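Marked as duplicate of an earlier ticket. Keeping the data here for the record.
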Amino acid sequence: MAALIMEPPPRQYVIFPLVVHWQPWLENLAFYLPKLHSGLVSGAPTAAWLSFLQPPRQQVWQAFAKHFQPGELSQWQAYLHYLSAQEDQDELDLRAAIRGTLAPGLPPELDREALWSLAYQLEETLAEKTAGLQQLADQEKVLEQLLGEAEADDQQVLPVDATFSPALTQGPADISLARLRLQFWQMILDPYLEEPWTLVVLEPAAGESSPRYLWQTALTAGQEGWQAHFQLPAWQPQPSSAAQSMAILELGVLFKKTLDGLLQALLTSAPETAAWRKKMDRLVEERLWPAATPHQARAIRLEVYSWPPGLTDAPALPSPMVFLSPVD
């Protein structure tokens, strides 16, 4: 009798960062990665997103501090001072407060509620900063449109080129903070992760402390790595018949199966990786984009970073890792 072929367990996709504030483009991800998991999703309108955590019940700094040995608490001094000063000094820059003083390691013994409370406060602080920068960027776009509609004679008196537009929402990469956030993510979500699992980074939420910079730092230093990107249509299929609905469902299942196969091959076999990469390219070009209607021209960029199979000296990063970002 032929041996039974066991299907591998479904791959679990878990979102980074720990706290995600809902954005409209995230609704499109349900087609590609159904039942996404996250630490905490704020404002998600769909059950396709599954949260492991709830907001911390209280700020437990005393419980947090008691797990440090004498001298270790100084590693966190700048960050704790920043938190205590927020009521009076909202303009403080988090990166300036902790860069160079916050050790990349966390203590081995730490109350989970205290750890989650600290991580939550950090994520909320970063989210508030990002929201403020985004508001400035939106105001800049409005100003740019107004300047573009002005008469040519009026524009000539401007001291600088009106088209000059620095990206207000992007600051310099913060490698130390990126390591810290990734450690928070791993330590807090470890009890909820089931093999095989993959970390999925939402780039707009990760910002300038995204794990992307940890990969790029390693690759720039000469570390051998693998990366690829795919441009997916940002669509929410609206089937007009039962047959079309079934076809769309099968297309979504096929995409998930192809991505799962690619990620698994990255762990085991370079030749299989190349084959799955070609399958993904064909699926995107020949099936996904032809199925998208003209008004669904917006896209989602999906990137995959990985270490080659069997690499023994790879940096301590979850591998492979997926990155998602909206493309206008």
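See parent ticket for discussion. The longest helix spans residues 112-148.
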